Amino acid sequence: MSAEIDPIKLMKQEVGKAAAKRVQSGMIVGLGTGSTTAYAIQFLGDRLNSGEIKDIVGIPTSFQAEVLAKQYGIPLTTLDAVDHIDVAIDGADEVDPQKNLIKGGGAAHTREKIVDSLAKQFIVVVDSTKIVEHLGSTFLLPVEVIPMAITPVMNAIEKLGGKPELRMGVKKAGPVITDQGNMVVDVKFDAIDNPAELEKTINNIPGVLENGLFVGVTDLVLVGEVKDGQTVIREM
Ligand SMILES: O=C(CO)[C@H](O)[C@H](O)COP(=O)(O)O
């Protein structure tokens, strides 16, 4: 009996590979977070170790990205040591037709927004299940909050019409703690009609560090999808 291949895993692998292929020798590369980007980091390491490309350095967006880059032999640097980022590759939880995003499913959106928005080219890698007409329709909006402000921030979000929920750990009692030592609130909004305005309004609440709306940052979306039984890559 042959093992079933998970089509979503296949789409993530192929789209990660397609993004990694766009990296050229000498580039400074923003390394995103999540299961899709993990494939891009793996393929990038393969290209580097086989000699197909050389002299790349990565800037990780999370502890996870740092660990993977080290595992796959990609040298790392920091924002203090470079004056630009050539390309950033990162996943997303939702992508709308304007290429605006919801990110932060891995609680890494604060560092991701810093690195992704600095890149000359920001490439988003997703499987087709992430494409939506309206942001917020399938995924809650992650908001990183400084712990002492968790109650006033949740109250302020409720006044904006959102339903906030403190993100709890899996295999850990208590809340998820970000790489910066903060907490994450996931917010249900009935409709996000103006993502640019909501992004600014939420970030204006004292105690909020960053939210997962990425508006006007994306240059290219690579979407992995299954057509006639084949995995293909579509550009948006
Ligand atoms: O924003 C992120 C982490 O904060 C991820 O990029 C996003 O959650 C997508 O992850 P995956 O590729 O595992 O679906």
Question: What does this protein structure show overall?
Answer:
This protein is globular. It has 6 helices and 13 strands. It is an alpha/beta fold and 236 residues long. The model has no long low-confidence stretch (mean pLDDT 97). It has helices at residues 7-20, 35-49, 63-71, 109-118, 150-159, 195-203, and strands at 28-31, 57-60, 85-90, 94-95, 101-102, 119-127, 141-145, 163-166, 183-188, 208-211, 213-214, 220-227, 230-235. The N and C termini lie far apart (38 Å). It folds into 2 domains: 7-131 and 216-225, Rossmann fold, CATH 3.40.50.1360; 141-210, Alpha-Beta Plaits (2-Layer Sandwich), CATH 3.30.70. A hairpin with a 5-residue loop joins strand 4 (94-95) and strand 5. The structure holds ribulose-5-phosphate. The site of ribulose-5-phosphate has 17 residues, from helix 2 and helix 4. Residues 32-36, 90-93, 103-109, 112 line the site of ribulose-5-phosphate.
Describe the biggest sheet?
6 strands, mixed
Q: Tell me, rounded to a whole number, the average pLDDT.
A: 97
Question: Per the principal axes of the C-alpha atoms, what is the gross shape?
Answer: globular
What is the CA–CA distance across the termini? 38 Å
CATH class of the largest domain: Alpha Beta
Low-confidence spans: none
Structural class estimated from helices and strands:
alpha/beta
Our estimate of the beta-strand percent is 25-35%
Number of strands: 13
**Order of strands in the sheet with most strands:** 2-1-3-6-12-13
Query: What small molecules does the structure contain?
Result: ribulose-5-phosphate
Number of domains: 2
